[in-house]
Amino acid sequence: MFRSKLSAITLALAAAGCCVLPVWAAQQTPEAISNASAADPKTQASSSKKQTKEDIEVIEVKSYSGSLIKSLNLKRFNDTVSETISADDLGALPDVSMADALTRLPGISAVRTGGQAAEINIRGMSGGFVFSTLNGREQVSTSGSRSIEFDQYPSELISSAAVYKSPKASLIEGGVAGTVELQTASPLRNSEQHTFTVNARGMFNDRASEVPDGQEMGDRLSFSYQGKFADDKLGVALGYARLYQPSVATQFIGLAYNTSMDVDGIKETVPNEFVSEGFEMQHKGGEEVRNGYMAALEWVPHDAFTLKADAFVSKFDSEAFARGFRAKLGGASTSVANPVLNGNSVIGGTFNRTSKSFTRVEIVNDDNQDFDEVQSFGVNADWDVTENFKLNLDLSHSAAQSDFRNGLLWSLVAKDANAATPVFDDNVSMSYKLNGLNLPDLGFNQAAAFSDINRVMLSKYGIYPYENEDRVDAVRLDATWRLDNPVIASLEAGLRYSDREYSNERSVYEYGNDGAFSASQKPLKLTADMVQVVNFKGDFSYFPSYLAIDQQKALAAWFPNGIPQPVKTWGTGNSGVLASQRVTGGPDTGWSMLQSGEVYEKVLSAYLMANIDTDLWSIPLSGNFGVRMVETDQSATSLQNVGGDPKLGAQNIVDDAGLVNNQYAPAVLGETYRDYLPQMNLNFRVTDDDQLRFAAARVMSRPPINRLASDTSTNINNDGIISGSSQNNPYLRPFYADQYDISWERYFSETEGALVGALFYKNIKSFISTFTIAEFDFKGAGFFVPDVIINPESGVPVPVKNGNYTTAVNNSKGGYIRGAELAYTQVFKFLPGVWQGLGVSTSYSFTESEIQQQTNLGGSTVDISLPGLSENVFTGTVFWEYEGFEARVSARYRDPFVSEQVAVNEQIVNFDGETVVDMQTSYQVNDQWSVLFQVNNVTDEPTKSYFGDETQTGTIQFFGRQYFLGVTYSM
Length: 971
Description:
Blueprint: H1 2-16, H2 30-35, H3 41-47, H4 63-76, E1 82-86, H5 98-102, E2 108-113, E3 116-122, E4 130-134, E5 137-138, E6 160-164, E7 178-183, E8 194-205, E9 217-229, E10 234-246, E11 249-254, E12 259-261, E13 273-275, E14 278-302, E15 305-328, E16 335-342, E17 345-352, E18 360-386, E19 389-413, E20 429-435, E21 438-444, E22 456-482, E23 488-506, E24 509-512, E25 524-525, E26 531-534, E27 546-549, H6 551-558, H7 591-594, E28 597-616, E29 619-641, E30 653-654, E31 660-661, E32 664-684, E33 690-701, E34 713-716, E35 721-725, E36 735-749, E37 753-764, E38 767-773, E39 788-790, E40 797-799, E41 801-811, E42 815-827, E43 838-849, E44 853-855, E45 862-864, E46 872-882, E47 885-894, E48 897-900, E49 908-911, E50 914-924, E51 929-936, E52 943-947, E53 949-958, E54 962-970
Parallel strand pairs: 4-7, 35-41
Antiparallel strand pairs: 1-6, 2-3, 4-5, 6-7, 8-9, 8-54, 9-10, 10-14, 11-14, 11-53, 12-13, 14-15, 15-18, 16-17, 17-20, 18-19, 19-22, 20-21, 22-23, 22-24, 22-25, 23-28, 26-27, 28-29, 29-32, 30-31, 32-33, 33-36, 34-35, 36-37, 37-42, 38-41, 39-40, 42-43, 43-46, 44-45, 46-47, 47-50, 48-49, 49-52, ...
């Protein structure tokens, strides 16, 4: 049978790490190649009957070098431009998560969050352009967008990963940057009857001692089992991985430049200078716990049929605190002396509070909790109907839940915290000067009070949860016809239907005032058992000391009848709340209602693809060409302000607190569209060791799922002009690109290495940007628009006319992304003696783009590059292996790039270039036991960002080094 032939050939690649494949076998996916095994009963049943086209050379490869060579063979015999990572056994990958593992591949870099890789960038494009699958199935994310957080996936539970840089028609659409395919174990394709592995590692962070209540120690533990039963017709795989690690950082954060005022007294053409909102100095600490589970059950009742069910669950919980202080510079009414300017922006000076400004220092003690869970379940049936025709049916469910609870506790300086009626101390003066990517100069007239229990009082408590749920159910049917044709080896066709639903729930509770002391919601006098005086250490030691507050003890004293919980509410100050429920001066928290909602996305796709197996001018040619049709039906719930008119659908909408709003009408907005995506991959086997690839395709990436949510607000003025605004848009279309790849691959031999060079070009058609549309057709877009209104001043009816609408749109200004990649891997087998185990694996990528975006976070509007793009990216590993001993040092470098600001969501800023160095040594004691020592972030590389210009500091964040000491047992 066709499948049996494939298994017979590819089993040697999986078992030996190398082989010479016939050209048609190069059409198979990396997972098909990597998972094939002599243990597959379908393989065993047919291998004795079928002969391969070429002899297979069996060469044993082991350890790190073996994994590298196996990955090179997967790349060599794949039918697309791709990169792979392979582990011979579950638990063999040393990385904390798949994010760390993927960054070792050419053209791939990572954005560090909390000191660890989380989001990956491919060829200069951010995570929003990366599509991800697990066992070939679409994955949803806890991020609230489409960007997968790869630190959610324990490397111990993943057997292989492939990054497709060029697509083919049979792959699920969605990756303009690329598609990441993760694979869990297939037990019947394991080379052994039974394997059992245990990994245990202790962890230490060397900066934890600088953080109050920081945890120094952590651990990692994993178990995995694979077994075959019933004459190798039934296979079972089970895996569990646990990570407990401290999360620590010491940081300075410069805030955005959102105020303009005249600070130098010179009335030039542009009279005002831009002033920052302020800055923060903080200790961050906490703990992260990730529990991952994997299971697979595989059954082959006879040679022509395989049924497999698999499950993957990962729970990632974190509790984190941020303690320190926040300096608010005071807005346009503050007094500024001795200003220091960078162009038209203030980067230093002395700021003094005035009667109209809000200049102050807030002592912050925030406690955040984040509970994330990813689930993926699937059933796959593979049936060889005839020798030349097979069917594959796949059913899948992927779900993600995220509950992020952002709890904030503000304290202010009082003149006397022991007074019967405490008074806020408004004698505030502070001096600072930014020093670019180094820590700033600071000075405060109230510095001594920040750690004085007789001066500091709690002034406000707020909690702002973000609850996201995302799930997709899908069914897929694929068919393959093997042809007796000198050019087309086989045809593939398939259908896929998916139904995705995303929901976002916002809620809120606030008490007190962060700018002064509230008369009705009085500040809390702190007691000695609630506080701890904290001193900054190391490079930060010149920052003022402050009071770290035990939030639970403080809140229990402030709310003796129980700490109130957040709710989704209109707020008593909202104008739409019924008059009988309205409270003068009450909070207006209607945003928690308007920003909550659902997004629905139904996708039907079909494809037809031909696999090539022929000779062109005596050169073997393989590859594929085809087209994928995608029809998308997307919609989102919406609340439209119709002024309480029941004729326009206004309803009494009750919030979680029982408050009633009668101004809004519920609606569902959206549209349906269809796309055609032609794709081609050609692989020329010029010699036995040289391969030329060419690929061309039209690709698409859908907008972040949360950007499809409707959060529109509209207003009709007295003249009848309707206007509106929205950060999101349920009518957003995908990003489209035409892309071209060409690469040359030179393989030295199956056990020595390769040299690969590649060029790529992407023509991006459009990007999402915020745009104001004049005379927008509100009614035509589905908004409730009355024909006339009554002017409240004149009492005269006025016809309603279309005005401006500001929203997220697909602008037509795209541009190119182009670049080059060079990868070199070499095991120096020709060296004498012990040096035969020496090797190197390096890659370099250069990427440039004409696409520019604009930011005004630094005050002046400046152009910045495409998010995720680093012009130069380098990865390198030097390793040595000898008689069970292994040592390697790895480094990854990326140029400055643009991404979201650390700790300040949705602020796009520049990040400085960084070099992260890791090292690892291990020793194989015997066939069962090995020990390991590992250091991550050897040089304690910080994360640094800035607002368009390096003189305007964003974030400077140090995370510390992580040390691991562990042992592995396998049998």
